[in-house]
Amino acid sequence: MANKVNGLNDEPGLADLLGLKKNTVSSGLPPSRSNQLNPVGNALKFIGIALFVIGLIGALIIGNSDNFPNELKSTEVILILISSTIQCALFYGFSEIIFLLNGIKNKNEEG
Questions:
Q1: Cα dihedral value 33, 39, 44, 47, nearest 10
Q2: How many whole angstroms separate alpha carbon 32 and alpha carbon 18?
Q3: Cα 56 from chain centroid (whole Å)
Q4: Whole-prediction pTM value?
Q5: How wide is the angle at C-alpha 101 spanned by C-alphas 24 and 84, nearest 5°?
Q6: CA distance linking residue 101 with residue 29, whole number of Å
Q7: CA-to-CA distance for 51 and 85, rounded, in angstroms?
Q8: How far is CA 21 from the centre of its chain?
Q9: Rounded to an integer, what distance in angstroms lies between the CA atom of residue 12 and that of residue 29?
Q10: Where are the domains positioned within the chain?
């Protein structure tokens, strides 16, 4: 008797050997529902994006202001952009780590 997997007629057990199981989960990625159930990860992601936007707006304000010394203006703008990008990357990275750990926890609870 042959199994029908993805429209192909295969020998019994061949789908298991090829990894064509119906309930496969991509490794390393959390289930999509875990992103919605983890407020800490969502908060860290929001904080990271907000810090980058605030840094970008601050750099634009300083770059266009006339009250700031011209000698320091470009240096200050570059430092603000670099620091806000690093802060955004750190917060966003920590949120992704939390999502991955939550996915591992959910995977261990299911299996």
A1: 110
A2: 25
A3: 21
A4: 0.63
A5: 120
A6: 9
A7: 8
A8: 27
A9: 29
A10: 1-27, 31-110
What pLDDT is recorded for position 4?
A: 53
Q: Is residue 58 over pLDDT 90?
A: yes
Structure tokens at 82: 């670099």
Residues 6+ apart with CB under 8 A from 48: 87, 88, 89, 90, 91, 92, 95
What pLDDT score does 36 carry? 56
Phi, then psi, of 3 in degrees rounded to 5: -90, 150
Rounded Cα distance, 38 and 99, in Å: 7
Residue 99 makes CB contacts below 8 A (sequence gap 6+) with 30, 34, 35, 38, 41
DSSP at 22? T
Per-residue 3-state assignment (H helix, E strand, C coil) for 2-17: CEEECCEEECCCHHHH
